[in-house]
Structure formats: C-alpha cells, structure tokens
C-alpha cells in the first residue's frame, strides 16, 4: 500500500493551481506521461488524486457515496447560491429523493409542449434583438454578426424560464430577475469555491441575490396556493404536490432552492454546448447544410417555411443527434468531476498500482477527480480524437448506444433513453454517471436541439476569425471571448 505519486510543484500550498487552472486537460495529459493514470496534485492546500481513463471515471462515479462524497467538495460553492437543505446541503439520500421529484416532472408529455415554446422564444429573439438587425431587414444578402456566447446565454435562460421555471419567472425575466440571476452566477467561480465567504462585493451581491430570489419563488408558491392557481403542468406545481418517503411535504424554501439549483445547473452547461455547436457549424458550412437539409426533408412545407417538429421526431434526426453528441464529446462543459474521500480508499490494480503486488491508497481527507473531458478526447481511445467529426456517430454502433434505456438501480432514478450507454466505466460521459448523474439530459437535448434547429432554419453562418479556444477560467468550459459569428438570413 502506498500513496499515488505526487506531481512536482515549487510552491507548497499553491501547488499546481496555475497549470490546472490554465488548461486542466493538458495538465492531466502531461502528468499522465510521467505518472500514469493515477497521481496526486496540490491545489491551494487540497490534495487531489486524479484517476484517468474509463476505469478512472468508474472509480469516481461508481464509488460508494458513504466513502466517495460530493457534498464536501461542491457544497461550499453551491450552498450559498442554491440555498439551505437541498442538493449538497442535505444528506445524499435526501438529494436522491429530490432528484426523483424533479425527474417525475420532466416527462415526455412536457417535452412535447416545450419544443413549440423554445422555438417561439428563439424566433422572437431573432426578430427583436439588436444583434440580429440585418435579420430583421428585408434584404437577405445583408450579412450581420452576433456574439455567440452572449446570444446563447440569453436564449438559454429565456427558454428555460419559459419551460422549466414557469410562467411567473418568464414574465419577470425583464423585470429584475435577470440581474438577480447575474449576481448569483458571479458567485459560482473558482474563487468562491476555494473561499466560501470573503468580505468582497461579489460575495455580498451573491448573498443578497440568493435571499431575494428565494423569497421571489416562495412568494410565487404562496400566491399559487392562496389563489388556488394550478399551473399544474410545470415543475414547481409538481414539486408542490409531492412528499418525501416519510410523508413530509416539500417545504416552500426547499422548492424555491431546488428551482434555483435547476436554473443554475442548466444554464452554462446548455449555453456553452449550443455555442460550441454554432461555432462548429459556422466553421463547417457543409455540415450546417446537411443539418438544414435534414430539417427541409422532415419539416419543410411545399410553399417554403417549416412546420413545427414533434418531440418524437426530434429524437430521430441522425445529423442533429450526431452534431450534439460530437460537440459534447469535444466540449464537455464540466471538465473535473470531484468527490471527497471519507475513508482510506484502495485504487483497483487495473487502474494503476506501484507494483504487481501492491496498491495505491487514497487517504481520507483527499479529493478524487475524474475527467471525462479528457477520456472523451483521448487519442489512446478515439480515432482522430481532436477532430470534430460528426460521422463517427452515424454508424450502427452510435445509434445502438442511443437506444439504451438507463435506469439506476441504486438511486431508483429513470434517466430514459440517453445519449450515454449505461454504466460508470465509459470514456464518454458528458452527463456523468451513477448516483450523481445528470437529470437534465433529456431536457437539455430538447432545449439545445430546438434552439439549433430554429436557428439553422432561419440563418446561414460563417466563422469570423479563428476558431476560439476553450476558456477554463470559470467553473465551466466556455468559448474564449470575444467570439463572433457572421450570419445572413435564409430565404424562408
Ligand atoms: C449532474 C452535465 C444540463 C441538472 C450533472 C453531471 C454532469 C452534468 C457531468 C454530474 C456531476 C457530478 O457527478 O459531479 C450536464 C450537461 C448538460 C446538463 C453537459 C447540458 C448540456 C442540465 C440541466 C439541468 C441539470 C438542463 C436541469 C434541468 C443536473 C442535476 C444534477 C446534474 C440536478 C445532479 C447533481 C448531483 O446529483 O450531484 N450534469 N448537465 N443539468 N445535472 Fe446536469
């Protein structure tokens, strides 16, 4: 039994923070060359053991939650933003129940309605936002330009508000809710993760915004109850009607905090994915054309224009599916999946070992880290790993992976038919795996798929300048700013 090898660093407490912060994936690759798939690095006083490859993913995602725990790692960052008693501020068993509550309100029936709503929001945005000035003119030969990440961030929050968050939130988007959201969002940075509370303006704004937002949701709940307004079809209404296993109804502050958690969990993940999709389409007009022709073939009307697509149809569009899959492979929004180690934990020999007859042990108090972002683009696993190539998903194996239903026995959460095949030992896990797996995948596919389809139907795009590099400085991987896409309105 011995400790995993320690990555060399000059400054004791600071450790490898600079290299990790600048480009975690490259940092892991260079450590792997020296140490193999298992190694420890120092990150601002923490000891972080990285376990790479599909087996490394399995070690972290598949670990027992009593030993390999998420709440100690993520809680200090998320609790001030989401609020008390939900997600990582409650025992893991309670989180599992909370995930199930949300999951039952994300049904196929709802998704059917969401497609029209998302399409409507995007259409309205293109018709009114100043960045789409030339789109709003009659001359189809006029090129304009939009800032891709800014535009997609706005479209994402508007469409999430209109669908998941409910009518009252959508109505308030232009009346102060957007600013509250921004203040909360600025509380989700690496600095806030390292230090939960500092006497700085961003912390104060975060705390004020949380309080206001929590009250805002709780007022909606009280209003609905007092006025007997059902809105029975949305997530909030569904949470109002459910109870914990012990019969306890979900308190209003918990519902409010779950709604905040959903808003935050779905924002940068979806908006960065959609941004990368548009950047690749702008870079590869041939693939954008394939996507457009797929839309024309299935939904084109004889006199021009399109009919709405249905949820079942959205799920069966091979080009759209491959574009989203391949973008998630190359640009997983979450690069590091972390857990806190509550008890000394031996590393399986097959993942990495000091010698044939001994094992590494990750000691209690360490953090473990898996990086599907690396295994998804690992040249040891994928052909032309660094190339965005949609054709890799267009064969029989790609389609078969999609057809697998995923049900987690352990958490009793049914994830439906996912992009990802079942199991924690896989190189491709953009939505994670195991107990903490994403419950927003199906919703994200509806949201991302509809936004892209609506955009591709309406405009042609070209990249302005070089393809942007990933920016790792926030908690999620987003395209480096500024990045603009040139566009021109299509005929119909
Ligand atoms: C968990 C990715 C969209 C809600 C996760 C995890 C990943 C992920 C990798 C696992 C984290 C871990 O194991 O530590 C993504 C991606 C998205 C996306 C790539 C979009 C492209 C969404 C949306 C929602 C959402 C739209 C909400 C509607 C959640 C929740 C969890 C989760 C509640 C569970 C956290 C836990 O159990 O600890 N997501 N997500 N996600 N996601 Fe998503």
Task: Describe what you observe in this structure.
The chain has 18 helices and 14 strands. The protein folds into two domains: about 1-75 and about 335-370, no CATH class; about 85-335 and about 390-490, Cytochrome p450 (Orthogonal Bundle). With about 500 residues, the chain is of the alpha+beta class. The longest helix has about 30 residues, at about 250-285. Helices cover about 50% and strands about 10% of the residues. The strands form five sheets. A five-stranded mixed beta sheet has the order 1-2-8-5-3, sandwiched between helices. Strands 4-14-11 form a three-stranded antiparallel beta sheet. A hairpin with a 4-residue loop joins strand 9 and strand 10. The site of protoporphyrin IX containing FE has 22 residues, from helix 5, helix 12 and helix 18. Protoporphyrin IX containing FE binds near residues 95, 164, 337 and 443.
